[in-house]
Design goal:
Number of helices: 14
Radius of gyration: 21 Å
CATH class of the largest domain: Alpha Beta
Number of strands: 19
CATH topology of the largest domain: TIM Barrel
CATH superfamily of the largest domain: Metal-dependent hydrolases
Strand content: 15-25%
Oligomer: single chain
Distance between the termini: 41 Å
Strand order of the largest sheet: 8-9-10-11-12-13-14-15
Length: 446
């Protein structure tokens, strides 16, 4: 008697922990029930995907969707629509909203709001001086992906610039905490270097030394505490070299923006639309980031999707805010890098699926294997598309990659066995659910 499934994906090339090869995927009850040859099987729905490639669902572990409090830039719904349009099946959202996500009530509020999201999701809780003693409980709540600490580039209670504050956070956590690593004390000294209307000075204000000083401090404090850290959006060649010697405590994220754009050209062409923290840097630092990918130092690729309106970004520097959208373009931009031989498709899968699963201890996602959620990103490696402002679903309505032609593009986004995006159209209403973690508390039955 032949097997039956809810969904069979036939004829595509698959890329998983075993490498690349032809296989069918059978889905039952939202999970992968078989990865192999299913010639005799039947299903309620069958998709013929010959000529396409199936990756494990892309996980973007750093996005700022701006809700609550900043919804004119983005909200959870519009950010998630941009995500699934770009082939992203799950996102981890940051705590610097208004109010900040620093309490159990604030986390619960975000989870309630997230019922409008098209993709699966989890939320960081912000680590502060005030809530440090509670972080061990907060980090284990359902829907929490971990603790996020800003050592620089933030304001108010989310800024933990001092060693004692960072040490206190580390003393109270058990899971891996994520850090924005720039030295706030050096940044404060260098802010007068900002030249009005000259975005090329942004890299001088937030220089490579500011990042390296902070990362050295952070690793030292993590070692003293015996805790694991995740260094977000690394931008310097020196940090990559340094962190390569500390992989036992530190995992590393890089972004498509820093791998693709270079200073000063990006600032001269895009002006405020190239401004982000840490900044876009020169070609030598970018080459160091690519060495980090080639040598296995980088663990995760995140978009650091951080939208602002066009009007806000048009303000003269330094009044223009830092941050750019990226969740919808993460995969197309990186597939283009694959096309041009800068990394393999297998390495891209490791950075966008296997890596987040390992670093954050995700349960049931991040791998293409039997028993895992049927989160799948289907791409056409030969498709050529031109990225344009008007095609972005983010509320901000722009991309730093406008007019960039890429080869390789997401064609379907499948989340827990349901096709959410097909060939440039979102086809299902909101159905996102919280991501589960191996060391989090079990959700309540209430």
């Amino acid at each position: 008697m032949s097997e039956t499934f809810d969904l069979i994906l036939r004829g595509a090339e698959v890329v998983n922990h075993s490498g690349r090869g032809q296989a069918d995927i059978g889905v039952r009850n939202g999970r992968m029930a078989s990865v192999g040859w299913l010639a005799q099987a039947s299903a309620g729905e069958t998709l013929d995907l010959r000529g396409l490639t199936i990756m494990p669902g892309v996980i973007d572990s750093q996005v700022h969707f701006r809700e609550p409090g900043l919804e004119w830039k983005e909200d959870l719904e519009t950010g998630s629509l941009a995500a699934v349009m770009g082939g992203v099946t799950a996102v981890f959202e940051m705590p610097n909203t208004e109010p900040t996500t620093t309490t159990a009530d604030a986390l619960e509020d975000k989870l309630n709001r997230a019922r409008r999201m098209a993709c699966d999701h989890a939320f960081y809780v912000g680590g502060t001086h005030e809530n440090a003693s509670m972080l061990g409980d907060l980090e284990r709540l359902p829907g929490c992906c971990g603790i996020k600490v800003f050592m620089g580039a933030s304001t108010g209670t989310l800024l933990v610039a001092d060693d004692a504050g960072v040490a206190s956070v580390l003393a109270h956590i058990n899971r891996r905490a994520a850090f924005h690593s720039e030295d706030e004390y050096r940044l404060a000294e260098r802010r007068p270097l900002a030249r009005t209307g000259d975005w090329t000075s942004h890299e001088e204000v937030r220089d490579a030394t500011s990042a390296m000083m902070s990362t050295e401090r952070l690793v030292r404090l993590a070692r003293a505490a015996g805790k694991r850290i995740h260094v977000l959006h690394v931008t310097t060649a020196e940090e990559i070299e340094f962190l390569s010697h500390h992989k036992d405590v530190a995992s590393v994220e890089v972004t498509p923006q820093h791998l693709t754009l270079t200073a000063p050209e990006a600032y001269e062409r895009l002006k405020g639309f190239a401004q982000m923290n840490p900044p876009i840097r020169g070609a030598a630092h970018q080459a160091g980031l690519w060495r980090g990918i080639t040598d296995g130092v980088a663990d995760v690729l995140g978009s650091d999707h951080a939208p602002h309106t066009k009007e806000e970004k048009a303000r003269p520097y330094p009044a223009s805010p830092s941050g750019m959208p990226g969740v919808q373009t993460l995969l197309p931009v990186m597939l283009d890098h694959v096309t041009h031989g800068r990394l393999t498709l297998e390495r891209l899968v490791d950075l966008t699926s296997h890596g987040p699963q390992r670093v954050f201890g995700i349960a049931g996602k991040g791998r293409m294997a039997e028993g895992y959620d049927a989160d799948l990103t289907v791409v056409d490696l030969k498709a050529k598309r031109t990225l344009r402002h008007e095609d972005m679903l983010s509320r901000c309505g722009w991309t730093p990659f406008d007019e960039m032609t890429v080869t390789g593009f997401p064609m379907l986004t499948i989340i827990r066995g349901a096709t959410v995006m097909r060939e440039g159209e979102v086809i299902l209403p909101a159905r996102g659910q919280p991501v589960r973690f191996q060391d989090a508390l079990a959700p309540s039955n209430v």
